[in-house]
Amino acid sequence: MPRPIEALIHTDALAHNLVRARRMAPDAKVWAVVKADAYGHRIAHAFEGLRGADGFALLDIAEAEQLRRLGWRGPILLLEGCFDARDLEACSRLNLWHVVHHEAQIDWLALHKTTWPHHVFLKMNTGLNRLGFTPAAFRSAWLRLSGLTQVDEISLMTHFAEADGPRGVDHQVAAFEAATHDLPGERSLCNSAATLRESPARPNVRGDWVRPGIMLYGASPDHPEHGIAHWDLQPTMTLRTRLIATQDLKPGDAVGYGGAFVADTPMRIGVAACGYADGYPRSAPAGTPVLVDGRRTRLAGRVSMDMVTVDLTGLPDVGPGSEVTLWGRGPGGVVLPIDEVAHPAGTVGYELMCAVAPRVPVSAVP
Ligand SMILES: *Cc1c(COP(=O)(O)O)cnc(C)c1O
Questions:
Q1: Alpha-carbon gap, residue 318 to 335, rounded angstroms
Q2: Are 320 and 245 in contact (CB under 8 A)?
Q3: d(CA 185, CA 209)
Q4: What count of other Cβ atoms lies within 10 Å of the Cβ of residue 23?
Q5: CA separation for the pair 51, 58 (Å, rounded)
Q6: Ligand 1 neighbours (beta carbon < 6 A)
Q7: Is the bond preceding 358 in cis, omega lying within 30 degrees of 0?
Q8: Which reaction does it catalyse (predicted)?
Q9: 12-51 residue pLDDT tens
Q10: Residues forming the annotated binding site?
């Protein structure tokens, strides 16, 4: 028998979360962001749940090619655009829309031979300071692009730095609007946090296309301020395994490497077949929540390469073979949001779902 660990992708939950994005952005089109192999869910599984999107946004041409092979004929957007001139051939062949965020990408386009003019998304840097033309340089980039026969449509986009935090998006929206108010073209500004927090009440922020990622995968962009229950999102990935051993401890007995966890009363510990080599974060401290047979308990002791140890106090009827849910949906419909594991581990749901290791089999369930 293989090690009992596996990841399940809930395609019904992906579809539900997509509907939530649509509700929050009425009249806008939705780019389902599926970069990083759909945030670790695998493009093919994500496509099953997200095929109702208006388009798919990602980074890798290989992933775009996979979507085309799966039968997707609608829009695909390369969020970082082309990495060299040859990528434009793939854009022409696969009919990919692409972001233009620096001058060299315009140079490549100007030399590109294509019978199909391209749809590009011209990106403005409004304060995140990663990709994009400054507001001052934006207009001349737009004018250059609009003079190219290789380009037939220019949409305008920017990306928020703190849509989930106290500073919000207003300063970035103001910079974007000041530099684009007299330019034609569709607009796209919102990631998940802005789709949930800004788009419902502010049509100018909502624009023509929203670009949700993390919310589609059932994690909250502004945890711990709001959890997935607040936003009515459902977990789309379950990481689960089984108990493979138990240990009875006396007061003073220590658990795991470094003996960091010491029993202060007699207690029973369960050993689950999941460790940091499976992608479970080693930084998750004792106390991090976990489900055993659908009941909530906690880690006890350090995460090791292939195992975690869990507190079985109050769970007398569980033992080797019992199901352990590291995050996602447990037996009986009990939910353990990935955010509640990421937060004590000092990280975010994004990182955990992307980090599930290749040795963990991933399968889709309807
Ligand atoms: C990743 C990404 C998104 C999605 O962000 P979430 O926080 O996951 O919703 C949107 N736009 C761009 C440009 C991105 O790179």
A1: 19
A2: yes
A3: 11
A4: 11
A5: 15
A6: 33, 35, 79, 159, 191-192, 211-214, 221
A7: no
A8: L-alanine = D-alanine
A9: 999 999 999 999 999 999 999 999 999 999 999 999 999 9
A10: 130, 305
pLDDT band with cut points at 50, 70 and 90 for residue 115 = confident
Please report how many Cα atoms fall inside a 13 Å half-sphere around the Cα of residue 34, on the Cβ side.
33
**Residue at token pair 């854009």:** 91
* Structure tokens, 83: 């990495």
Nearest to 161 by CA among 131, 183, 181: 131
Asked if residue 39 lies in contact with residue 350, where contact means CB atoms within 8 angstroms, the answer is yes
Whether 35 is a known active-site residue: answer yes
| Residue 259 φ/ψ region, left for φ over 0, alpha for ψ in the -120 to 50 degree band, beta for the rest | left
Give whole-number Cα distances, 337 to 56, 227, 254, in Å: 25, 8, 29
Distance 241 CA to ligand 1 centre (A): 30
Question: Two tokens at 113?
Answer: 């031979």
Question: Of 109, 71, 75, 350, which is closest to residue 188 (Cα–Cα)?
Answer: 75
Q: Three-class SS of residue 120?
A: strand
Torsion of CA 215, 218, 223, 226, to 10 degrees: 90
Active site residue 257: yes
Contact 156, 189 (CB under 8 A): no
Q: Identify the structural domains of the chain with CATH numbers, from first to last.
A: 11-220 (3.20.20.10), 237-365 (2.40.37.10)
**In whole angstroms, how far apart are CA 240 and each of 16, 60, 105, 113?**
22, 29, 44, 50
Report the amino acid identity of residue 330: G
Q: Rounded distance, CA 174 to CA 310, Å?
A: 50
Q: What's the chain's average pLDDT?
A: 97
Q: Which residue positions form the known binding site for substrate?
A: 130, 305
pLDDT of 331 above 90: yes
